[in-house]
Specification:
This protein is of the alpha/beta class. Helix content is 28%, strand content 23%. The radius of gyration is 23 Å and the shape is globular. The chain starts with a helix and ends with a helix.
Length: 386
């Protein structure tokens, strides 16, 4: 079978994986396709946590034992260890599949490549690396979690071409297009949690849910970073604290916040994390550790500027989604997306790796991993009051 044919079936496996977008945490999204004599005879995608894996579902969908010259396509290396559903390599071997075509290698350092070797040792032909970049990109949350034992902290920005998120008056809706905003909803549906700062809550009163055409509204964990609980307002309580999803809201604060405010939130059914710190700013490293303890595998930060700047200063941004609209404010008093560094040389700039670009109407999304320079200077005057 030729390389273009392998890619054709792998693209179908990717479509299947994307069909379970955001529903498989903490497991990866995987798609599998069983092919016999040039025809697809079985398909599968990872079931929610605790359910069957894509490879087993594709074999089951065949309805009978596969033919002796069948090929199984899977977007990720089949698992080689026995979990709640059993090792997929065992099922593949028992089904007497003759060839397995794999997209991405399992990112778990304890497993990487072992499943492929088990299959080869059983006499099965294995072809790996087919559309590997696309298959790897599909599971950016899982890949980070399984390889580092910590959540991925991602940031979303929506700016003008000169890097501004609001006019000097605060006017900001909308800089980017409807297509970009719809794409944000897609990523909201993927991430287990969304986070904003107190300023965003007071200015925008957001819902922080995923609202996609043809789908029910979905609510992830919703984090509000509020070191002094300034968002607790008896006269006009934010929707995050009173709506039907308030039990999915977690306010992240400090020991300096009033105990009475904490009690009000908890009485409403809102959760509160009080993380230790000597200042009024939430310790972001402690927040990451707390998320790991709670098995929250990824957080999608949507602002505001101060919170994003603190994340950047503390090197806590792992991944960036940067939406840019084709407009300029050209105003020094317009609000920048982030600030607080003293970048005196190009070599000190923060860059992005594994970059992907997407065109969304007139807008451009640039996304990728953050790559911090060895030499990194913070402008202490910006953060001295925190």
């Amino acid at each position: 079978m030729s390389a273009p044919e392998h890619e054709k079936y792998m693209r179908r496996a990717l479509e299947l994986a994307q069909s379970v977008w955001g529903t498989t945490h903490p497991n990866p999204m995987v798609g599998a396709v069983l092919v016999e004599e040039g025809k697809i005879v079985g398909e599968g995608a990872t079931a929610p946590d605790g359910g069957a894996h894509a490879e087993r579902l594709a074999l089951l969908a065949r309805g009978k034992p596969p033919g002796s010259k069948s090929t199984l396509y899977t977007t990720m290396e089949p698992c080689s260890t026995h979990g709640r559903t059993g090792a997929c390599v065992k099922a593949i071997i028992e089904a007497e599949i003759s060839r397995v075509v794999v997209g991405a290698i399992d990112p778990n350092p304890d497993h990487a490549g072992k499943g492929l070797q088990v299959l080869r040792d059983a006499g099965i032909e294995v072809i790996d690396g087919v559309l590997a970049e696309d298959c790897t990109d599909l599971n950016l949350i899982f890949n980070h979690w399984i390889s580092r034992n910590e959540p991925i902290l991602a940031v979303k920005t929506a700016t003008t071409l000169d890097g501004r998120i609001a006019c000097r008056t605060g006017d900001s809706q909308w800089i980017t297009s409807e297509l970009s905003r719809a794409d944000v909803m897609k990523w909201r549906r993927l991430f287990p949690a969304i986070a904003v700062g107190a300023g965003t809550v007071k200015d925008d009163n957001p819902r922080l849910t995923a609202r996609r055409e043809g789908e029910d509204e979905w609510c992830p964990w919703r984090f509000v970073f509020d070191g002094l609980l300034s968002t607790v307002d008896d006269r006009n309580m934010p929707a995050l604290y009173t709506d039907d999803y308030r039990d999915r809201t977690i306010v992240v604060t400090t020991p300096h916040a009033g105990v009475g405010y904490v009690r009000k939130l908890e009485d409403l059914g809102v959760k509160v994390w009080r993380l230790p710190t000597q200042t009024h700013r939430v310790g972001l490293k402690d927040f990451r550790l707390k998320c790991a303890e709670e098995k929250i595998t990824g957080v999608y930060f949507e602002g505001g500027s101060r919170l994003l700047s603190e994340l950047m200063r503390d090197r806590q941004i792992d991944y960036m989604f940067a939406y840019r609209a084709p407009m300029f404010f050209a105003d020094d008093r317009a609000k920048p997306v982030m600030s607080g560094l003293r970048t005196e040389k190009i070599a000190h700039a923060i860059r992005m790796d594994s970059v992907r670009h997407e065109i969304l109407g007139a807008d451009v999304l640039t996304r990728g991993r953050m790559a911090y320079p060895d030499e990194f200077h913070v402008d202490e005057t910006v953060f001295s009051l925190g």
